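Work Package 4 report. The design task specified in the project plan requires that, given a folded chain encoded as structure tokens, an amino acid be chosen for each position. We show below one input record used in the internal validation round.
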């Protein structure tokens, strides 16, 4: 077992290292599931096999010592070597390293697996596509049950939950590359006709309210951008526009239901198909979103972003957001 366990642990470390250095495309959900499964098997084996075996060995040691004392007593010998049976018993009962690193870690890994898979999952914002709502380096929590519970790894929905609403900030699996997670704002729900023309958003023929705010200074780009407050339904949030960028969508790819979209020099108009969502970043001219790669199917949904739990460069960022 020690050799087998060493090989299993080496495989996990090797996979993590290959992922870190970019040799393979990592899947943390799968890695955590396998770690939970493997350590769980060791935990069961520890409770049913290995621990009872060590206890029997400890009991045998104590019985042998007692039998030896009784045998010596029949010969009139009452003074025997003072052996610390307690220390010897503890040594026999102690978990070996290969169980300490598997069965011993199972409760912690199980808690992390359940929390991450069904309650809340942490994410780090890697890009500026959601500025000014979310900044690069924000650490956020994503609610995994609002839109319905899903089985880890395969992402199959097992409870219905609430349907995503316009204005929600949602994490989802990037349709062209499902192993990668994206975060954008829900702009269109199934059945909506979404138009983004001349940098103005229209839903089902009604222009979305857009109120000018003071310019936003992007510290990374060292530039000012036009800032507006937009209202989708009862949700109000800020967006940015870059006046130096054209309104038309350049470089849109081929994607499922592309026939639902019409592109022009003014922008794009799309009819959202059933079971899909139209997503856009709040940094409207610096966001690779549904305008370019299409609709997000319901099966790709990961959860609803609800809270910034840490930003090590700016603690004032911590808290809920719109």
């Amino acid at each position: 077992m020690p050799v087998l366990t060493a090989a299993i642990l080496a495989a996990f470390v090797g996979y993590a290292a290959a992922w870190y250095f970019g040799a393979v495309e990592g899947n943390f959900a799968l890695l955590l599931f396998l770690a939970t499964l493997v350590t769980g098997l060791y935990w069961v084996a520890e409770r049913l096999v290995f621990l009872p075996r060590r206890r029997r060995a400890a009991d045998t040691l104590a019985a042998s010592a007692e039998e030896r004392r009784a045998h010596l007593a029949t010969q009139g010998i009452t003074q025997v070597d003072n052996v610390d049976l307690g220390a010897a018993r503890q040594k026999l009962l102690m978990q070996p390293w290969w169980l300490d690193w598997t069965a011993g870690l199972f409760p912690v890994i199980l808690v992390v697996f359940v929390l991450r898979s069904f309650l809340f999952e942490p994410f780090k914002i890697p890009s500026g596509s959601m500025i000014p709502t979310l900044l690069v380096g924000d650490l956020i929590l994503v609610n995994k049950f609002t839109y319905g519970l899903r089985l880890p790894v395969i992402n199959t929905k097992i409870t219905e939950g609430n349907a995503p609403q316009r204005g929600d900030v949602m994490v989802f699996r990037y349709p062209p590359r499902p192993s990668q997670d994206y975060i954008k704002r829900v702009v269109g729900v199934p059945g909506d006709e979404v138009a983004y023309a001349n940098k103005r958003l229209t839903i089902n023929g009604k222009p979305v309210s857009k109120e000018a705010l003071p310019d936003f200074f992007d510290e990374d780009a060292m530039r000012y951008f036009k800032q507006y407050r937009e209202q989708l339904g009862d949700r109000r949030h800020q967006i940015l526009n870059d006046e130096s960028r054209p309104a038309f969508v350049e470089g849109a790819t081929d994607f499922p239901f592309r026939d639902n979209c019409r592109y022009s020099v003014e922008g794009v108009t799309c009819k959202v198909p059933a079971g899909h969502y139209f997503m856009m970043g709040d940094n409207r001219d610096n966001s690779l979103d549904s305008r370019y790669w299409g609709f997000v199917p319901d099966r790709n949904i990961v959860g609803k972003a609800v809270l910034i739990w840490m930003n090590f460069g700016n603690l004032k960022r911590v808290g809920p957001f719109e």
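Residues 2-114 form one domain. Validation will be extended to a larger panel in the next phase.
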